[in-house]
Write a structure and sequence with these properties.
heterodimer, A: MetI-like fold, 12 helices, 0% strand, elongated, B: alpha/beta, 2 domains, 8-stranded mixed sheet, 4-stranded antiparallel sheet, 22% strand, globular
């Protein structure tokens, strides 16, 4: 029960940072997000500027990560792709929260027939695998990252919905909620200030895991050419376009592959550490 | 309704439906509150006593409409609380506040003390920012806490301090009525008296009307002007605190008193102890006549058949007991109603 407090206090972040994996994840993600934001400023050259005199060059002082089949600087493309990949990932999770949290609150708080209806709709949505659903949406609406990520976000809604509903149900019978109602404050205030904060820890942990999962899905779609459209790149599409030259220029697939791997690992590790710390705080 | 009655519960009934399982099979209704009528008079404290499951806490919740009545009305200054909705209900609630039993669960663990106390202040009185903080500080001081404690989280405070926070929160909307639901039961004995004295002090300072719900008759007697005794969802005895505690007219009240340890064995209790055996009957299958019949040492024929009506008692108040109306038919000698208090036992009209 005290988990909400644990998060609110600075203590939990200090505890996360005091653990090796937590610290490593936070540092990695901070640097990565910094690079994604400031990438356009620090990129050595225009990511779409080709130089047909220097195609498939190995890493060098001039091109740290080499050049691709059109002679574009791989490092510049990677930096710009970071922005695309991270934004797309965040978009999907944000859409998921948007469509999941409010129905979750309503289902948990109101209960009865409304809970039944909302929960059944959520079950139907949950039964679609996210990637297949995204492929279907893309097939209907045409290739494009925004459509695909919105579709994935909607598919995520039920997962957040379940968490919020469960937490709201959990605190609904608590005396402090009854006490808050008895003071005569509005209902939305009771939900917002007294019930929802207890769902945050579980939600944040879930968000962390979902970011890792979404990144993989986004990369898969872009790898297949269904996500971001050329000439722009995301990490997945960089791997996709380099696969034809894997024997000539393996470094082209290597860099985005490693970034996807470490980013996904960092999100999952952060989720693990958060989960440990939140439940550990409850016991201690 | 007379002028000095602030809050009245009229013929309150609360049924809890016992439905269980997938197909909502009815397992019988439980009547937690059975035609209870009570009045809170301005500036006075009514003590509501009974054992666990007697429905006393349910009455408190019905009065504040934390749960809906099955039947009956709750009048706050002649406005029916049971019919109010949304905005008007919240306004009514600001006039009557509750202090809950367990201060460990009644305070939101994710909020700071200052925000817990400040919330009703800002919603009911429109105070924000510094004005709100000043009011929070004033309340903290008036319940005997330090101003700095506004920044604490509830789990950094002791049980007594938490209950003081809960009281300060209840006072934030400047209520007329304070319902204390077992407000000291969860606290250590030494802390209990501090909180009780605080409540008495606040009552005189703010002119509060109080409903004090407790299972502990000695505590209730200490703080109350009047006492109502509940058994199995019904009020079985009502009257001035001293009369009820010194000269109980109902065998159940006498039994409750017998359960109170006496500091000075010689001081009182000339009467025999009334020791109860067994458990109260299930509220889903109450006795046909008097609710107390199954455990009453003095039960006789009418008790099994008819529910006793409330009749006036010498010294003030009323009692619902057949011994009061047909005592002599007991054959007097052995029991004669004398078991719990000799002067009181004789019937009167």
């Amino acid at each position: 029960m005290a988990s909400g407090t644990e998060l609110k206090r600075k203590g939990i972040w200090r505890r996360i940072l005091s653990r090796g994996p937590g610290l490593a994840s936070v540092i990695y993600l901070t640097v990565l997000i910094g690079l994604a934001i400031f990438g356009p400023l620090i990129a050595p050259q225009d990511p779409n500027q080709n130089d047909l005199r220097a195609v498939l060059e190995p890493p060098s002082i001039e091109h740290w990560l080499g050049t691709d089949a059109l002679g574009r600087d791989a490092l510049s493309r990677l930096l710009f792709a970071s922005q695309v990949s991270l934004l797309a990932t965040a978009q999907a999770v944000a859409v998921g929260l948007l469509v999941g949290v409010l129905p979750g609150v309503l289902a948990g708080y109101l209960g009865g027939i409304i809970d039944t209806i909302i929960s059944r709709i959520a079950d139907v949505l949950l039964s679609f695998p996210s990637l297949i659903l995204a492929l279907g949406i893309v097939a209907i609406l045409g290739p494009g990252l925004t459509n695909a990520m919105t579709a994935i976000g909607i598919a995520y809604g039920p997962r957040f919905l379940r968490i919020v509903r469960g937490q709201i149900l959990f605190v609904r019978g608590e005396t402090f909620v009854e006490a808050a109602i008895s003071t005569g404050i509005p209902r939305w205030r009771v939900i917002w200030a007294h019930m929802l904060p207890n769902a945050w820890p579980a939600l944040i942990i879930q968000i962390s895991f979902m970011l890792g999962l979404t990144l993989i899905i986004e990369s898969s779609l872009s790898f297949l050419g269904l996500g971001v459209q050329p000439p722009n790149a995301s990490w997945g599409s960089m791997i996709g376009s380099s696969k034809a030259y894997i024997e000539l220029a393996p470094w082209l697939a290597f860099a985005p592959g490693l970034v996807i791997f470490f980013t996904s690992l960092a999100f999952n590790t952060l989720g693990d550490v958060l989960r440990d710390e939140v439940s550990g705080g409850r016991e201690g | 309704m007379s002028d000095d009655v602030v809050l009245a519960g009229i013929d309150l009934v609360k049924d809890f439906s016992g439905r269980t399982g997938l197909i909502k099979r009815s397992t019988g209704n439980v009547r937690a509150v059975d035609h209870v009528t009570l009045e809170l008079k301005r500036g006075r404290t009514l003590g509501l006593v009974g054992e666990s499951g007697s429905g006393k806490s349910t009455v408190g919740r019905l009065l504040l409409r934390l749960i809906d009545v099955s039947d009956g009305a709750v009048l706050l200054n002649d406005q029916d609380v049971t019919q109010s909705k949304h905005r008007s209900l919240r306004k009514l609630r600001s006039a009557m506040q509750m202090v809950f039993q367990d201060p460990y669960s009644s305070l939101n663990p994710t909020m700071r003390v200052g925000d817990i106390i400040g919330e009703p202040i800002s919603y009911h009185r429109g105070l924000r920012g510094t004005a709100r903080d000043n009011e929070v500080e004033r309340l903290l001081v008036s319940v005997g806490l330090a101003v700095e404690q506004a920044r604490r989280f509830p789990d950094e405070l002791s049980g007594g301090q938490r209950q003081r926070v809960a009281i300060a929160r209840a006072l934030g909307s400047e209520p007329d009525i304070l319902v204390c639901d077992e407000a000291v039961s969860a606290l250590d004995i030494s802390i209990q008296s501090q909180i009780l004295n605080l409540l008495l002090h606040l009552q005189s300072e703010f002119g509060l009307t109080m409903l004090f719900v407790s299972h502990d008759l000695s505590v209730v007697r200490h703080v109350s002007h009047d006492i109502a005794v509940m058994y199995l969802g019904q009020i079985v005895e009502y009257g001035p605190a001293d009369r009820v505690a010194d000269q109980p007219a109902h065998p159940y009240t006498a039994a409750l008193l017998s359960a109170v340890p006496q500091a000075k064995p010689s001081s009182r209790r000339t009467s025999e102890k009334v020791i109860l055996e067994g458990d109260p009957p299930s509220p889903s299958a109450p006795p046909k006549g008097c609710p107390f019949v199954s455990r009453c040492p003095f039960a006789f024929e009418p008790c099994h058949e008819f529910r006793p009506a409330h009749t006036p008692v010498n010294g003030g108040g009323t009692v619902a007991c057949h011994l009061q109306t047909s005592g002599p038919t007991l054959g007097g000698a052995s029991l004669g109603g004398a078991a719990f208090d000799s002067e009181k036992s004789a019937t009167k009209h």
